[in-house]
Amino acid sequence: MRESTPSFGTPPKGGQQIEDLSHGGIDVEFAAAAHRFGLAFTDADMGRFARSYTRNMATTDNGVATTFLRVDGTGGMAAAGQYLQAPRYMPVAQWDPALFTHALAVYVDHAVQSQYGSTLLSVAYLNWQANR
Q1: Distance, CA of 32 to CA of 38 (rounded, Å)
Q2: What backbone phi and psi angles, to 5 degrees, belong to 60?
C-alpha cells in the first residue's frame, strides 16, 4: 500500500485521505483472494501488504500491542474500533510472521471479547492463521 488512490474527492485531485487500518484490511482481503486465484498480485505484492502492517501500523503503547490509525503509520494511535481490526491482515501473514505475532498480541493485551461481527471475524482469522 504505497499510495492511496480513492475514487472520490474533488476533481482533478481525487480523495486526499490515506486509508485507515480497518479499510486497509478489506483491501488486503481482496488482494489475497485475487492472488490465491491467480487473477492479480504477486508474492512480492503480498509481502508488501504484510510489511505495510508490520513496518507502518504495528506498535506498542506502554508495552501494550496496538496500531497506528493509517496504513502509512500516520494519524496517531488507533482507537479500539481500528486496532481490533489488525487480524484482518492474516491473509498475508505468511509473508511476514511478525504480523500474526503482533495481531495476536493486540487481542491478548487488550483481553478482547468478541462482541461485534468484525471482532468475531478477527478472532476467526487469528485461529485460522494459528492452524496453518
Answers
A1: 10
A2: -130, 160
